Amino acid sequence: MWLTVLEKMRIPDYAQHQLLWTYFPQVSKSEGAERPFCYLDTGDKIMMLSVVEPSTECIKIEFQAGQTLMFNCMASLTARRYSKSGVVFKPQDYTAEHTKDWFIRKFKDVADINYVTFKKHAPHMLVDSTGRKKRIPLDRTEFFGTLTIVDPERFVEIVGRGIGGGCAFGFGAMILPQVMKWK
Q1: Buried residues in 138-158 as b, exposed as e (16+ CB within 10 A)
Q2: CA proximity to 168, closest of 9, 12, 5, 10
Q3: Which three-class secondary structure state does DSSP give residue 105?
Q4: pLDDT 10s per residue in the chain (183 long)?
Q5: Measuring CA to CA, how many Å separate 4 from each of 23, 91, 113, 135?
Q6: What is the reported pLDDT for 34?
Q7: Model-level pTM?
Q8: Residues near 90 by Cβ (< 8 Å), separated by ≥ 6?
Q9: By CB neighbour count within 10 A (0-12 exposed, 13-18 middle, 19+ buried), where does 26 fall?
Q10: Contacts for 131 with CB less than 8 Å, ≥ 6 apart
Q11: Which of 149, 29, 141, 170 has its CA nearest to residue 76?
């Protein structure tokens, strides 16, 4: 996985995502192409994680099976359908148990979640290219805890592409402070 830290451009959410795609000229951006990165807007910087090496200065991060790390992640939960009952739970209806279970399932057979807690934040409203807010709110839940890596290759795929919905809008990037040290 690669970590890139960039100066933040003062542009709308959607334009930020389009700008970051330009760091991956080797990846076809055709319709349905899988995004090779996720990012986090820290205010004055953009921290980008990717499964493909970007065409800019970056640091390669490698993981080991059995490695235990702290994490922090702002994610947008997605709706969950229970097949037996046919009931659909939307993020705003999730109980604390649903929320933790949603996060743990993202890492099934990839990492053992040793401890996880979370904090709900007000929804994020998307900003379009004109600078106006769209009426599409994205759930914001911040997760904290520790995990132990079981499968390093699959862990990179999950963390490098982001967790949950809204990864194109700065959600889903997992901060792992023990291994994400910028020069």
Answers
A1: bbbbebebebebbebeebbeb
A2: 12
A3: helix
A4: 999 999 988 887 778 888 999 999 988 776 667 889 999 988 889 999 999 999 999 999 999 999 999 999 998 886 555 555 666 656 666 678 888 988 999 999 999 999 999 998 877 766 655 656 555 667 788 999 999 999 999 999 999 999 988 777 788 899 999 998 765
A5: 10, 30, 26, 31
A6: 83
A7: 0.83
A8: 79
A9: exposed
A10: 12
A11: 141
Instruction: Look at the alpha carbons of 71, 155, 12, 137 in this order and tell me if their dihedral is positive or negative.
Output: negative
Look at residue 16 in the predicted model and tell me its pLDDT: 84
Stretch (H or E) spanning 155: helix 152-161
User: Does residue 4 contact residue 48 with C-beta atoms inside 8 Å?
Assistant: yes
E strands in the chain? 2-7, 37-41, 45-50, 59-60, 68-75, 80-81, 88-89, 111-127, 133-149, 174-175
CB 136 within 8 A of CB 125: yes
Farthest-apart Cα atoms in the chain, separation: 51
**C-alpha dihedral over 174, 49, 169, 103, to 10 degrees?**
-30
CB 40 within 8 A of CB 75: no
